[in-house]
Design a protein that fits this description.
Distance between the termini: 23 Å
Structural class: mainly alpha
Radius of gyration: 20 Å
Largest sheet: 3 strands, antiparallel
Oligomer: single chain
Length: 197
């Protein structure tokens, strides 16, 4: 949690200066930032809801139409749709640790929701929204699908040749993670500040 707080950071507060002369100027600054921060949080949750619903609907269609059927070839045998149940993490890794991955997904959701109030950057809002939507998508499977609560197998269906089968939640998590790495290398913090190391 401390690492996440360090990465997200906190926006400068007007009281930090401690100078009576700067206080009126500092009090004028937060007024425009507050709505911007609220808009960024709205973007985060809109992206999360979109990613979550896209994942949920795709899995419902796969379970209804594709499970227990032959795979559908999209690009020959290079890309197929094949329904499988995955008890492990993203891309089929760690099947013996389903409960641990469930707890990790729940923790990620809590951390993102907690740190959203400090968010001032649109790219970070999109990245965190993708992570949140993907984590919620796979967590829903782990809670509500067989064999039981917190042990459920995730529905995967995108099957590239010579690669693990995955789903849209996995894709959202990976895209969000890649975007976070890019933003970090560019020096953009979630609170909107830019730094050069």
């Amino acid at each position: 949690m401390a690492e996440a707080e360090r990465i997200i950071g906190t926006p400068d507060t007007p009281d930090a200066a401690g100078d009576g002369q700067e206080r009126p100027d500092a009090e004028q600054e937060p007024a425009p930032e507050r709505p911007r921060g609220k808009r960024r949080v709205a973007v985060l949750f809109a992206v999360a809801v979109f990613a979550y619903l896209l994942d949920l609907v795709s899995k419902m269609i796969v379970v209804a139409r594709l499970e227990h059927h032959e795979p559908i070839e999209i690009i020959g045998d290079w890309l197929r749709l094949a329904a499988i149940r995955n008890a492990g993490a993203a891309f089929g890794f760690g099947e013996a640790f389903t409960i641990i991955f469930t707890v990790i997904a729940a923790a990620v959701i809590v951390v993102i929701a907690r740190l959203a109030r400090k968010l001032r950057s649109l790219p970070w809002a999109i990245a965190l929204g993708l992570l949140l939507g993907g984590a919620l998508g796979n967590l829903t499977d782990r809670i509500f699908r067989a064999p039981g609560v917190f042990e459920g197998a995730v529905v995967d269906f995108i099957a590239p040749k010579h690669f693990a089968v995955f789903n849209l939640a996995d894709s959202a998590i990976v895209c969000g993670g890649i975007l976070i790495v890019i933003l970090s290398f560019r020096g953009l913090d979630p609170d909107g500040t830019v730094h050069k190391d």
